[in-house]
Amino acid sequence: MPSAGRLPALSLALALTAALATPLAHAAGAPSARSGLPSFIGELTQRRYDGRSDDLLTAGLGFAGLRGPMPRAADPDRPTAAELRRQAIWASAGMSAGSGGGLGRLYGPDVDRGRPVPGDGKVAGVEYRAVAGGGARGVSFVVQVPDGFDRARPCVVAAPATGLGGVYSMVGTSGAWGLHHRCAVAYTDKGMGPAFDDLHSGTVMGYDGTTGPRAELRGRTVFDAGLSDAERARFDAEHPYRVAYKMAHSG
């Protein structure tokens, strides 16, 4: 199996989706060999969303919530992974900007083929989160498989982030189209999403967006500067209070 460092991020995302979605595609038919998880995948989590309190497309907000103000965290200084996910999906929809230019009328997560999507937009299903690689070469992935996944005609929509966007930045566009059409959707930040490593305090960002001490999050981060403890201490002594950002180290 090729290593994560030698495969483009989009190829990794599609390989991961094939491993996760293939069993669903065969569930209603004859038994088949279950796809194995690619060896380059490190941390993997799975969460089911019921389509009521939380979901794949609107993070439980519904179309009405996506049009409203950004959802706030109960404790702004310590947002939870669920709250960060909800904020990221809200931002990806871009619906709070109003209907100027046709948003919400001609296009948007609440429009399909030029027609309004009926209901509140919530999509039940399973979401997988994973990270491949490590250090300055970590790549973040999300795979969403809706409950309405078309097993007779299985399809996958690739939704890599544009520019330096985070892994959820395409949920409201490419992701919405895929979910409306009963496809699985594969997202990736291409190894360029927002993350940091505070070289003075040792605080880093986990793959779920939460932050904490580097020692506690080891193996669950999407970026760290790749310095040993000795190198980190030496650098901090010479250049205190520096922060390394993933986008500057992603090349």
TrEMBL record:
Q: Spell out the GO cellular component terms annotated for this protein, sorted alphabetically and separated by semicolons.
A: extracellular space
Q: Which GO terms describe its molecular function?
A: hydroxybutyrate-dimer hydrolase activity
Q: Which InterPro entries match?
A: OHBut_olig_hydro_put
- Signal peptide positions on this chain: 1-27
* Keyword check for Mitochondrion: no
Does the UniProt entry include the keyword Signal?
yes
The molecule here is called D-(-)-3-hydroxybutyrate oligomer hydrolase
Pfam annotation, one family: 3HBOH
Query: Keywords of this protein's UniProt record, alphabetized?
Result: Hydrolase, Signal
The residue ranges crossing the membrane are none
Give the record's GO biological process terms.
butyrate metabolic process
